[in-house]
Amino acid sequence: MNERSSSNSQYINVQSSLAVPSEPVVAYITGDGIGSDITPVMIEVVNAACKKAYGEQRKIDWQEVYAGQKAFDLTGEWLPKDTLDAIQRAHIAIKGPLATPIGGGIRSLNVALRHQLKLNTCMRPVRYFDGVPSPLKKPESVDIVVFRENSEDIYSGIEFKAGDALCEKLISDLKTVYSVSNIHYPKQSGLGVKVISEPASKALVRRAIQFAIDQNRKKVALVHKGNIMKYTEGAFCHWGYEVVVDEFGGEKVGGFYEIENPHTQEIIQVEDIIADACFQHVLLRPESFDVIATMNLNGDYLSDALAAQVGGIGIAPGANIGDTCALFEATHGTAPKHAGKNKANPSSLILSAEMMLRHMGWTEAADYVLQGVENAINDKQLTYDFARFYEGVDPISTSAYGQAICKRM
Ligand code: NAD
């Protein structure tokens, strides 16, 4: 990754290189609910880290764009076109949580953002921070990055409601045209279509392997349920191995495929694992996982389950990545009952910003953010959600936690 000095051109190609000017525009969405508590703190922490790392040489030009309630109040739209255009122009954006508008004609603003910006890969790193309460005996063994396909699977929105005329017609066609005989309650069954394509599967696996190469990771697991869903999940696995062999020169050695990392000449092992076994193994021996590549639904379940293993459901960061754009985001929701109280934990958004800085190639600033968070948690400078697990630890506010991080970089 390299830096370009011109301040008004920024171009990103996530798969290969990212050229970032010294004052890049980063679009941000404050978010609903606790978004207005955590987003200013995230910006303060990132600005402090950049200043510490680069002085006045590099800094972020933050540009607020609107989505959710704030956008609706200002424009009458939940997700204005101007917002999508601004994110596309900036190529890099970060967002707080967004409430799903009820009766707004949008199933989910998050899903709409991912679809409209073609952010086909969701990336969720899961690791343990010393001092975070966890249900595991050895949570420090968890250091796994989940790559989840973002655009397909059962999330494609092709669903038919039980009893609707279209649903009944489809069931009738399935029976007569396709000889499907095992729909046991035709009049009372809803239907959903699972879409898994070769291009999207290959793009996801390609990105996961490239990440393993760039970050010197040792293993990639393709997680699927292909033993049951042969032509969707099974196909994902098959296409994944085609990427391994055709694009990365992988070779089968015993039960694995091996790829040589061109930077280090070390071996990256690729295997596939059935999803239910994967859920057992990540709990019982998490140290044997490194990078996971999987489809939308498996990835949704796995990333939250893994985050919970390290006590990090409130601090797990995330990114949605496409070919020309990346949107980093807090993975939790709007926590409406805590909104405006300056008590929510901003770590998920701050660690998403840390991923964003790394993605931009600003690794020194990213390291400062990480160091600040690690040290603050270690020193028991904790917001209410973590402090309540420790006797004698008084919770601090969202803004005080931000200051504690800045002081400890
Ligand atoms: P939630 O994540 O808002 O809340 C779940 C629990 O976690 C609550 O007890 C909440 O108080 C707590 N919590 C969440 N984030 C916290 C933080 N940063 N600090 C301290 N405690 C925190 O999930 P929900 O209640 O199911 O959803 C509320 C709204 O958020 C819904 O409208 C939902 O659609 C939306 N949502 C948005 C996103 C997103 O924008 N990525 C993700 C999930 C839910």
TrEMBL record:
Reactions performed catalytically: D-threo-isocitrate + NADP(+) = 2-oxoglutarate + CO2 + NADPH
EC assignment: 1.1.1.42
SMART domains linked to this entry: Iso_dh
Domain Isopropylmalate dehydrogenase-like: residue ranges: 25-405
Any Pfam family the entry gives: Iso_dh
Cofactor: Mg(2+); Mn(2+)
Iron is among the record's keywords: no
SUPFAM superfamilies assigned: Isocitrate/Isopropylmalate dehydrogenase-like (SSF53659)
Enzyme class: oxidoreductase
Highest taxon listed in the record's lineage: Bacteria
Keywords: Glyoxylate bypass, Magnesium, Manganese, Metal-binding, NADP, Oxidoreductase, Tricarboxylic acid cycle
Quaternary context: Homodimer.
Family (UniProt): Belongs to the isocitrate and isopropylmalate dehydrogenases family.
PANTHER family tied to this protein: ISOCITRATE DEHYDROGENASE [NADP]
Protein name, UniProt field: Isocitrate dehydrogenase [NADP]
Annotated organism of origin: Candidatus Comchoanobacter bicostacola
